[in-house]
Q: What sequence folds into this?
């Protein structure tokens, strides 16, 4: 592992790209070397390219304000020569994203993607670092397919999964869960919006988010799957049904979860589940990665805090990288019901991708 890595942000003017900038500014391992976006932004200073679209609370960091934006689609080889790897968060059609990310990989530039395009590519790992870090072991098979020595693509899962799947996965490691019903209440930043740009969301709720229910029902199976040969084979053990809502919240996705075990007669107690959550440490915690939360899952008991977790008090825990769980109690139709939440643009999007990059770096995949 080197002392410092030069990184690029592909899709730097969008909301997730902006979040990448705030997270990578002053990062102990990484230095932002390239910002890239669409041809209409290329050639401009970043502060001029993003202009009034800057949506972060903090100001544009001085280190990137005057950086000239490169063309994400036409400068692939030039960008690949300048950096050790790139983060990708572009707003393009899915087929175009798949092709673009493969171009970077084939230019021997590893790609850590926030996009959904490659989440179902069998040899592309889709990783929640605390849950399935072992899936990075598929990368040599992907490199063989792509014909690369360094280049590869790794992706993070959908932002809403981070609000509930980690809590279920930790329990599932010891007590297999059979089926679950999940309802997610998703912040407007998940659509790349603020209340200023989407005033229609004030005092409103939309009971539909295109494509989200399918992602919530299908993607967990890949995260919980196993490497077999040269691909990751999704699990068929856990069945999830999901309903999604867009709610008038700036940041933070909340999930209401009902779940039952394969062996309900020998299910764990509420106290045992809460203890599993509170004590769980994944590889990021063991490696003390820069963006790893000190405590992965924060627990609010039904007895002491029946009205928690709440968005305003829980979304920023451990730099917005922790998961918060509460209201775990018995259900009349399932074994248990609970509430879980996470910060969607930190843990769920850019922060999750940065943590994935840190895992890949620590394991030697960026060298």
A:
């Amino acid at each position: 592992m080197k002392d410092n890595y030069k990184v690029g942000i592909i899709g730097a003017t969008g909301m997730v790209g902006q979040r990448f900038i705030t997270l990578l500014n002053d990062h102990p391992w990484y230095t932002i070397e390239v910002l890239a976006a669409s041809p209409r932004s290329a050639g401009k200073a970043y502060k001029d390219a993003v202009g009034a679209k800057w949506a972060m609370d903090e100001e544009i960091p001085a280190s990137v304000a005057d950086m000239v934006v490169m063309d994400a689609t036409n400068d692939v080889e030039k960008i690949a020569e300048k950096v050790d790897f790139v983060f990708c968060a572009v707003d393009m059609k899915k087929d175009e994203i798949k092709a673009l990310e493969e171009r970077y990989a084939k230019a021997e530039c590893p790609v850590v993607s926030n996009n959904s395009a490659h989440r179902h590519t069998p040899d592309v790992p889709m990783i929640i670092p605390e849950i399935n870090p072992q899936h990075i072991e598929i990368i040599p098979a992907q490199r063989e397919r792509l014909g690369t020595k360094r280049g590869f693509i790794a992706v993070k899962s959908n932002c809403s999964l981070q609000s509930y799947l980690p809590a279920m996965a930790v329990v599932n490691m010891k007590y297999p869960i059979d089926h679950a019903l999940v309802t997610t209440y998703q912040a407007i930043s998940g659509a790349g919006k603020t209340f200023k740009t989407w005033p229609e969301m004030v005092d409103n709720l939309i009971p539909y988010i295109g494509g989200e229910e399918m992602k919530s029902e299908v993607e967990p199976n890949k995260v919980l799957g196993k490497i077999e040969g040269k691909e990751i084979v999704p699990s068929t053990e856990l069945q999830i049904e999901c309903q999604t809502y867009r709610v008038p919240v700036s940041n933070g996705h909340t999930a209401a979860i009902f779940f039952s075990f394969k062996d309900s007669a020998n299910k764990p107690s509420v106290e045992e589940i809460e203890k599993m959550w509170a004590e769980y440490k994944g590889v990021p915690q063991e490696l003390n990665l820069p963006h790893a939360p000190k405590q992965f899952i924060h627990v609010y008991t039904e007895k002491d805090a029946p009205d928690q977790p709440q968005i305003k008090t829980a979304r920023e825990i451990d730099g917005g990288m922790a998961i918060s769980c509460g209201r775990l109690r018995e259900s009349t139709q399932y074994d248990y019901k609970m509430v879980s939440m996470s910060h969607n643009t930190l843990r769920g999007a850019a922060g999750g991708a940065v943590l994935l990059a840190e895992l890949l770096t620590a394991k030697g995949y960026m060298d």
